[in-house]
Amino acid sequence: MQIIAKGHDEYYPYEPPPLPEYDVSPSLKKLVLKFIGTMLINFLIAGACALAMRIIQTDVHLRSLAHINVPDNVLFYSLLTSHGQVMFFGVLSFNTIWFSYYAVSKWGRKPLASMKLARASFWIMEIAVVLLFLDTVFHFGSGWYNLMPLTFLRLL
Ligand code: HEM
User: Where exactly are the structural domains of the chain?
Assistant: First the structure.
Protein backbone atom coordinates (compact mmCIF):
# COMPACT_ATOMS: atom_id res chain seq x y z
CA MET A 1 0.00 0.00 0.00
CA GLN A 2 1.55 3.28 -1.04
CA ILE A 3 1.30 6.21 1.36
CA ILE A 4 1.32 9.63 -0.34
CA ALA A 5 3.28 11.65 2.22
CA LYS A 6 4.63 11.20 5.71
CA GLY A 7 2.14 12.49 8.28
CA HIS A 8 -0.74 12.29 5.86
CA ASP A 9 -3.73 10.24 7.07
CA GLU A 10 -2.41 6.78 6.33
CA TYR A 11 -5.93 5.55 6.07
CA TYR A 12 -6.18 6.83 2.52
CA PRO A 13 -4.16 4.35 0.55
CA TYR A 14 -3.13 5.31 -2.98
CA GLU A 15 -4.64 2.20 -4.55
CA PRO A 16 -8.10 1.07 -3.37
CA PRO A 17 -8.15 -2.58 -2.20
CA PRO A 18 -9.68 -5.06 -4.71
CA LEU A 19 -13.43 -5.61 -4.29
CA PRO A 20 -14.39 -9.08 -3.04
CA GLU A 21 -15.64 -11.43 -5.84
CA TYR A 22 -19.49 -11.27 -6.28
CA ASP A 23 -21.41 -14.16 -7.83
CA VAL A 24 -24.97 -14.09 -9.13
CA SER A 25 -27.54 -16.14 -7.22
CA PRO A 26 -28.11 -19.81 -8.18
CA SER A 27 -31.72 -19.00 -9.15
CA LEU A 28 -30.53 -16.28 -11.54
CA LYS A 29 -27.91 -18.64 -13.02
CA LYS A 30 -30.69 -21.20 -13.59
CA LEU A 31 -32.91 -18.58 -15.27
CA VAL A 32 -30.02 -17.38 -17.49
CA LEU A 33 -29.37 -20.97 -18.63
CA LYS A 34 -33.11 -21.39 -19.34
CA PHE A 35 -33.04 -18.22 -21.48
CA ILE A 36 -29.95 -19.42 -23.40
CA GLY A 37 -31.35 -22.93 -23.96
CA THR A 38 -34.71 -21.64 -25.18
CA MET A 39 -33.00 -19.02 -27.37
CA LEU A 40 -31.05 -21.79 -29.09
CA ILE A 41 -34.27 -23.77 -29.71
CA ASN A 42 -35.93 -20.61 -31.13
CA PHE A 43 -32.86 -20.05 -33.35
CA LEU A 44 -32.97 -23.61 -34.72
CA ILE A 45 -36.71 -23.51 -35.47
CA ALA A 46 -36.54 -20.02 -37.03
CA GLY A 47 -33.46 -21.12 -38.99
CA ALA A 48 -35.45 -24.15 -40.24
CA CYS A 49 -38.18 -21.73 -41.41
CA ALA A 50 -35.53 -19.88 -43.45
CA LEU A 51 -34.19 -23.09 -44.97
CA ALA A 52 -37.77 -24.10 -45.86
CA MET A 53 -38.15 -20.76 -47.66
CA ARG A 54 -35.08 -21.52 -49.78
CA ILE A 55 -36.34 -25.09 -50.48
CA ILE A 56 -39.67 -23.63 -51.72
CA GLN A 57 -37.63 -21.65 -54.29
CA THR A 58 -36.09 -24.88 -55.64
CA ASP A 59 -37.78 -27.64 -57.67
CA VAL A 60 -38.36 -29.64 -54.52
CA HIS A 61 -42.14 -29.63 -53.93
CA LEU A 62 -42.07 -29.04 -50.20
CA ARG A 63 -45.82 -28.47 -50.06
CA SER A 64 -46.73 -31.85 -51.51
CA LEU A 65 -44.05 -33.51 -49.35
CA ALA A 66 -45.47 -31.86 -46.24
CA HIS A 67 -49.08 -32.13 -47.41
CA ILE A 68 -49.52 -28.38 -47.07
CA ASN A 69 -52.44 -27.10 -49.12
CA VAL A 70 -51.48 -23.42 -49.55
CA PRO A 71 -49.85 -21.67 -52.53
CA ASP A 72 -46.04 -21.34 -52.50
CA ASN A 73 -46.09 -17.55 -52.15
CA VAL A 74 -48.39 -17.74 -49.09
CA LEU A 75 -46.15 -20.36 -47.45
CA PHE A 76 -42.97 -18.42 -48.37
CA TYR A 77 -44.14 -15.11 -46.91
CA SER A 78 -45.61 -16.61 -43.75
CA LEU A 79 -42.33 -18.53 -43.19
CA LEU A 80 -40.39 -15.30 -43.85
CA THR A 81 -42.50 -13.45 -41.28
CA SER A 82 -42.07 -16.16 -38.64
CA HIS A 83 -38.34 -16.35 -39.36
CA GLY A 84 -37.66 -12.61 -39.12
CA GLN A 85 -39.88 -11.98 -36.09
CA VAL A 86 -38.65 -14.98 -34.09
CA MET A 87 -34.99 -14.22 -34.87
CA PHE A 88 -35.64 -10.68 -33.65
CA PHE A 89 -37.73 -11.41 -30.53
CA GLY A 90 -36.86 -15.05 -29.79
CA VAL A 91 -33.11 -14.76 -30.38
CA LEU A 92 -31.83 -11.15 -30.30
CA SER A 93 -34.25 -9.97 -27.57
CA PHE A 94 -33.73 -13.14 -25.51
CA ASN A 95 -29.95 -12.57 -25.58
CA THR A 96 -30.41 -8.92 -24.61
CA ILE A 97 -32.68 -9.82 -21.68
CA TRP A 98 -30.61 -12.59 -20.04
CA PHE A 99 -27.37 -10.65 -20.48
CA SER A 100 -28.93 -7.54 -18.91
CA TYR A 101 -30.18 -9.55 -15.91
CA TYR A 102 -26.76 -11.18 -15.51
CA ALA A 103 -24.73 -7.99 -16.00
CA VAL A 104 -26.91 -5.86 -13.69
CA SER A 105 -26.59 -8.42 -10.90
CA LYS A 106 -22.94 -9.43 -11.48
CA TRP A 107 -21.47 -5.95 -11.95
CA GLY A 108 -24.14 -4.14 -9.96
CA ARG A 109 -23.05 -6.50 -7.21
CA LYS A 110 -26.56 -7.17 -5.89
CA PRO A 111 -29.49 -9.48 -6.62
CA LEU A 112 -32.23 -8.46 -9.09
CA ALA A 113 -35.11 -6.47 -7.57
CA SER A 114 -37.53 -9.35 -8.26
CA MET A 115 -36.64 -12.87 -9.44
CA LYS A 116 -40.41 -13.51 -9.69
CA LEU A 117 -40.76 -10.76 -12.32
CA ALA A 118 -37.60 -11.98 -14.08
CA ARG A 119 -39.08 -15.50 -14.33
CA ALA A 120 -42.41 -14.07 -15.49
CA SER A 121 -40.59 -12.14 -18.25
CA PHE A 122 -39.18 -15.43 -19.56
CA TRP A 123 -42.63 -17.01 -19.89
CA ILE A 124 -44.24 -13.87 -21.35
CA MET A 125 -41.50 -13.67 -24.00
CA GLU A 126 -41.58 -17.36 -24.87
CA ILE A 127 -45.40 -17.49 -25.15
CA ALA A 128 -45.14 -14.47 -27.49
CA VAL A 129 -42.50 -16.31 -29.55
CA VAL A 130 -44.75 -19.38 -29.86
CA LEU A 131 -47.55 -17.05 -31.02
CA LEU A 132 -45.15 -15.62 -33.63
CA PHE A 133 -44.51 -19.12 -34.97
CA LEU A 134 -48.28 -19.34 -35.48
CA ASP A 135 -47.82 -16.74 -38.26
CA THR A 136 -46.95 -19.66 -40.50
CA VAL A 137 -49.86 -21.80 -39.34
CA PHE A 138 -52.36 -18.98 -39.98
CA HIS A 139 -50.64 -17.83 -43.23
CA PHE A 140 -49.84 -14.38 -41.88
CA GLY A 141 -47.18 -13.05 -44.23
CA SER A 142 -46.63 -9.31 -43.83
CA GLY A 143 -42.85 -9.56 -43.17
CA TRP A 144 -41.07 -9.11 -39.81
CA TYR A 145 -42.07 -5.43 -39.54
CA ASN A 146 -45.78 -6.08 -40.31
CA LEU A 147 -45.66 -4.03 -43.49
CA MET A 148 -48.91 -2.05 -43.94
CA PRO A 149 -51.38 -2.77 -45.50
CA LEU A 150 -50.25 -6.44 -45.82
CA THR A 151 -51.15 -6.90 -42.15
CA PHE A 152 -54.83 -6.46 -43.01
CA LEU A 153 -54.83 -8.51 -46.21
CA ARG A 154 -55.82 -12.15 -46.02
CA LEU A 155 -53.32 -14.15 -48.13
CA LEU A 156 -55.87 -16.80 -48.77
C1 HEM B 1 -29.92 -20.13 -39.45
C2 HEM B 1 -29.50 -18.95 -39.81
C3 HEM B 1 -30.29 -18.11 -40.80
C4 HEM B 1 -30.69 -18.39 -42.07
C5 HEM B 1 -30.48 -19.68 -42.85
C6 HEM B 1 -31.39 -17.21 -42.57
C7 HEM B 1 -31.92 -17.09 -43.85
C8 HEM B 1 -32.76 -16.07 -44.24
C9 HEM B 1 -33.42 -16.02 -45.52
C10 HEM B 1 -33.30 -17.08 -46.60
C11 HEM B 1 -34.16 -14.88 -45.56
C12 HEM B 1 -35.09 -14.39 -46.69
C13 HEM B 1 -34.37 -13.46 -47.58
C14 HEM B 1 -35.32 -13.12 -48.71
O15 HEM B 1 -35.43 -13.91 -49.61
O16 HEM B 1 -35.96 -12.10 -48.60
C17 HEM B 1 -33.97 -14.22 -44.30
C18 HEM B 1 -34.59 -13.04 -43.97
C19 HEM B 1 -34.44 -12.46 -42.73
N20 HEM B 1 -33.64 -12.90 -41.71
FE21 HEM B 1 -32.55 -14.58 -41.65
N22 HEM B 1 -31.42 -16.24 -41.62
C23 HEM B 1 -30.75 -16.75 -40.52
C24 HEM B 1 -30.51 -16.13 -39.34
C25 HEM B 1 -31.06 -14.91 -39.02
C26 HEM B 1 -30.78 -14.19 -37.80
C27 HEM B 1 -29.84 -14.69 -36.69
C28 HEM B 1 -31.51 -13.05 -37.83
C29 HEM B 1 -31.63 -11.93 -36.83
C30 HEM B 1 -31.29 -11.98 -35.63
C31 HEM B 1 -32.27 -13.07 -39.07
C32 HEM B 1 -33.17 -12.09 -39.44
C33 HEM B 1 -33.80 -12.03 -40.65
C34 HEM B 1 -34.76 -10.98 -41.01
C35 HEM B 1 -35.22 -9.84 -40.12
C36 HEM B 1 -35.16 -11.25 -42.33
C37 HEM B 1 -36.16 -10.43 -43.19
C38 HEM B 1 -37.55 -10.95 -42.92
C39 HEM B 1 -38.58 -10.12 -43.67
O40 HEM B 1 -38.28 -9.58 -44.72
O41 HEM B 1 -39.70 -10.08 -43.16
N42 HEM B 1 -31.96 -14.20 -39.78
N43 HEM B 1 -33.11 -14.96 -43.51
Answer: 24-147
